Each structure stands twice: as structure tokens, then as C-alpha cells.
Amino acid sequence: MCNFAELPKTAHLIEVGPRDGLQSEPDFFPTAAKIEMIRRAVRAGIREIEATSFVHPKRVPQMQDAAEVIQTILPELPPEVEIIALVPNEKGFERAVAAGLRKVRLVLTASQTFHRKNFNQSIEETQAEFAQVFARGKAAGVNCVGIIAASWGCPYEGRVAVEQPLRLAEGLEQAGATEIFFADTTGMAVPTTVYRLLQEAVARLSVPVGVHFHNTRSTGYANVVAALQAGVNRFDTSLGGLGGCPFAPRATGNIATEDTAHMLNEMRIETGTSLEQLISTVTWLEASMGKKLPGQLAKAGPAFL
Ligand code: ZN
Using CB atoms within 10 A of its CB, is residue 219 exposed (0-12), middle (13-18) or buried (19+)? Predict the structure, then answer.
């Protein structure tokens, strides 16, 4: 039985809207608007932002302005704000570091079929390539975060045995990952499976553990609580719940930054964010994109002012 008094007292929210959120948008979101989105997130108290992906521009045209976004935003941010990016390979790593980044994210997938769809190669082939990236990261003082996609389920292979993401996580840690994130890319996790995997992960890994939940089947926020119960307090979230995955069929919605912040605030878990600023940013984002986003807080308002 969980004693709520024993939950972590703080939580770290990583805003992934500018990358994960926008990646699946068919229309190009202007570079200036991406930069404004990052500025507004920072103003709202977010201290880590996944700003872009150094993927091949032909593969994900939305991210073709990666270097420009990073080079514009980096000089104007306070030192406590970390800007990070996804890199799919060594070439992406080189581009990210050349743009000035000191922290990057590398993704493996917990199922072979899904991994092939994402990377066009086997998990083992990507692991071999990542070994080079980790070595270069270590030499250059660039932190490399390992992410394991589809940790709780795969749209092609179904249930994923708990040992599979754990084994990959241990491999990433040995290779030099400075943090490990488990991602429920297509919203297949529930609180019990979240707790089971994370409890093991926290026991076995010595680097910080984080999570990336999607609210595809409305379990995202319950999963946040289960993660807290396992002692994990680093959460990827996106403003408005923007996002999906272009390589995963019917994968909708990251958990929304403002909804997560509101829940955590009310649970007396400090996030350092301003709900008012988060909501005004979502309102701005909806106007900029010309559509409503799935997050609820901007519609309902905070429970208590
Ligand atoms: Zn996501």
C-alpha cells in the first residue's frame, strides 16, 4: 500500500512539445513560432526542453530548421535551462554538438519490428552505432540520455516482456548513458505495469530514471502517479498534449504539460512552473496552430486559484 506522504516532493518536467509534439504535424510550424514556443515554456518555469531533432530533413521535414532553432535560442536562455535534442545517429550527434548542445537523446525501441520501422535497421545495429556516439559524447563532455521506446507495448508485437526494456536500459547505462527514460510511445501502459517496470529499473540502474507517457488510452496521468510511487519524478510532457508519432499508427497525445503540472501542484509536488503562464502558452499555441489541443486545463482552468 502506497503512503502518499512518501512520494517525491519535487518533479522535473521536460517539455517535449517543440520536438515530439510538432514532429507529427503535417504543416510546417514556422521557425520563429518554434522559438517563441520555447521562450514561452521557459517563462512558464520549464527548465529542460527537447527543442528539436537532428534527424535527416528529408525524413522529418518539420525538423529541417534544427540548427537555426538551437543557435537562436541558446544564447538568450539563463544557464539553468537545458536545451536538448534527439539524435538518431552519429551524423545527428555531430550536427547537434556543432549547434552548441551539451545534452542529446538517443532512442532504442523495445521491440524489433517497431525499431526497424523507426530506424530501418535492427536494435543490435543501432546499439553498435550508438556505442560510437556514447564514446564521442564522453570525450566531448556531452551528456547522452538513453530512451527506450515502446517499453510497455508495441503496436506490431503487442505486449513487451519487462526484461526487454530493462536489458536495453542496462546496456545503455554501460555504454555511458547519463539518464534513462522509458517511453510508452503508443499509450499501452497502465499503473500496475508502470510500477512493475520502474521499480525494477530504479533498483537496477544507477543513473536517474525518467518516463515519457502518452495519453492515447487515457491512462497517462494515472501512470504519472504510479511512476511517482516507484520513486520516478522526471516526466516528459508537451504543452497542450500536442503530439503523436509519425512512425506509430494511431499514437496520439503526449500527456499535457499544464495538466500534469496542475495535478502535481495539487498533490504538493513542486514543479517550479506557473499554471497561468502554461495556460496562456497553450492558448497562444492553439491560436498559432489554428486548432484545439487535447489538454484539459486550458479549457477547465485550475481547480483552485
Ligand atoms: Zn511522445
Answer: buried
CB atoms within 5 A of ion ligand 1 belong to 20, 254
Known catalytic residues are: 245
| pLDDT tens by residue, 122-134 | 999 999 999 999 9
Q: Does residue 126 contact residue 171 with C-beta atoms inside 8 Å?
A: no
- Give the DSSP H or E segment for 50: strand 48-53
Cell of 67: 540548427
Ligand 1 centroid distance, CA of 21 (Å): 7
Query: Do the beta carbons of residue 84 and residue 103 sit within 8 Å?
Result: yes
pTM listed for this prediction: 0.96
Residue 85, beta-bridge partner list: 52, 104
C-alpha cell at 81: 535551462
| Grid cell for residue 186 | 503508443
- Spell out the CATH class of 4-300: alpha beta
- Overall residue count recorded for the chain in this entry: 305
- Map out the domains of the chain as residue ranges: 4-300
